Amino acid sequence: MSHGFDVKKRHVVVVGAARSGVAVADLLVSRGARVTLTDTRPSIEDEAALRSRGLTLELGGHRTETLTGADLIVLSPGVPPRQPALDAARAAGVPVTGELELASRWLLGRVVAITGTKGKSTTTTLTGRMLEAGGRRTRVGGNIGLALSAQVEDSTPDTIHVVEVSSFQLEMTERFHPWIAALLNFSPDHLDRHASVEEYAGAKARIFANQTPADWAVVNADDAPALELSSAAAAKPFRFSMRGDLGGHREGVVIAGDVIVHRTSEGDVPLVPLTSVRLLGRHLLSDVLAAASIARIAGITPEAMTRAVEGFTGLEHALEPVGDAGGVRFVNDSKATNIAAARLAIESFDRGLVVILGGKFKGGDFRDLRAPLAARADAVVAIGEAAGLVLEALEGAVPVCRAASMSDAVRSAYAAALPGGTVLLAPACASFDMFRDYAERGRVFKGEVERLTREVERTREQ
């Protein structure tokens, strides 16, 4: 499959009818393929519209005979690549690829790819805004927003595609070739899907696999595992560091006084004043450094970077301030779906914290949260399938109670919080035991906070 890879009249089966799967199915139809879209769910949204666009739908499971009879199989990122029907298709000689890989082969523009265990969405969004502020033709998406397949039709040689890429997308890549590849950090995650930490690390490292010395590898110098994973990259290294330690590299992005600067052998070039940053949490500042590094390589002026940062108040569900009830503030970090991300969220606050933790467990060790919680938290409210694990891991470090629903959790947390304190939703888990995704979990949390705020105000008025 090279540029111009021809799918005309070929039978292509797309596995998984979520956002990326639908986007790649539409793209394949537009390129003349006969497309079957298959999903394990018995029904999906917009079925009639999908059929009217020329797609054949097979719902309620992946049929082995459909997969083994295909000319090509394309997987949505959410679909595990190892399963019996897919293994049978591989054995029958059917090529299997991923949505990101397929779409990238048809792009005319250059790719900026951003990965890491946490901070991907914030960095991707802010990088896109910096490039746009600098007058570049930019498309932003991948794992968030517009799937890469949905960007192919308006890709031009001067387009820069800023793409958030997950380990699920990277593990299926063969020739995916970013001009700038950024690795923000690395810690164990998704061990419900990857067989081992090594397999997960291998997937992340694939972001550098096809780069050449004409490309760039942007890496967090404060994160030893990330540096290790990028050590074999052929691309030119570009480091950023909150600590100011570029690990022997003379050049990179650091903080000097109250300004983010590009440190060079000729001296520091000021990029963005810290007073322009409107984000809660020190770890989100690291994402600003990463975005500034990419924008600097792309030739964006410091003025344009600063404008973009000033207009960016953060993403929904990423340390998002939600409201205040009876002197207690509420913060939504539903995107903290692993223990490392939850720890960073917890460490963004001083004392007086009550944390809502739990959901569908994805691996890691809740005991890693004992010390940061003991130093800051008055209580923890445990929810979801992992509630028992949370209770067990935190026993003796901080008082823990269980809640059966988000409504109960918000009320229990409010009852445990002192005036001037903060209730933080930082689940450290996936959401699929109680919610469709982390976004729905965050919205339900915000809805409950709103209801509580109204109740508290009514009680005051009486």
Description:
- Helices cover 33% and strands 23% of the residues.
- With 462 residues, it is α/β, with parallel strands linked by helices.
- The chain is globular and about 70 Å long.
- A nine-stranded mixed β-sheet has the order 7-8-6-9-10-11-12-13-14, sandwiched between helices. A six-stranded mixed β-sheet has the order 15-16-20-17-18-19, sandwiched between helices.
- The chain contains 16 helices and 20 strands.
- α6 packs across α10 (282-297), α6 (120-133) packs across α11 and α15 (406-416) crosses α16 (438-461).
- The protein folds into three domains: 11-94, NAD(P)-binding Rossmann-like Domain (Rossmann fold, 3-Layer(aba) Sandwich), CATH 3.40.50; 101-310, Mur-like, catalytic domain (UDP-N-acetylmuramoyl-L-alanine:D-glutamate ligase, 3-Layer(aba) Sandwich); 320-456, Mur ligase, C-terminal domain (Protein-Tyrosine Phosphatase, Chain A, Alpha-Beta Complex), CATH 3.90.190.
- α2 (47-52) links the parallel β2 and β3.
- The chain has helices spanning 19-30, 47-52, 64-68, 84-91, 99-104, 120-133, 167-170, 197-205, 224-230, 282-297, 302-310, 339-346, 370-376, 387-394, 406-416, 438-461, and strands spanning 11-15, 34-39, 56-59, 72-75, 96-98, 110-115, 137-142, 159-164, 180-183, 216-220, 236-241, 252-256, 259-264, 267-273, 320-325, 328-332, 353-358, 377-383, 400-402, 422-425.
- The model has no long low-confidence stretch (mean pLDDT 92).
- The termini are far apart.
Considering the chains and any ligands shown, give keywords for the structure.
462 residues, alpha/beta, Rossmann fold, UDP-N-acetylmuramoyl-L-alanine:D-glutamate ligase, Protein-Tyrosine Phosphatase, Chain A, 3 domains, nine-stranded mixed beta sheet, six-stranded mixed beta sheet, 16 helices, 23% strand, globular
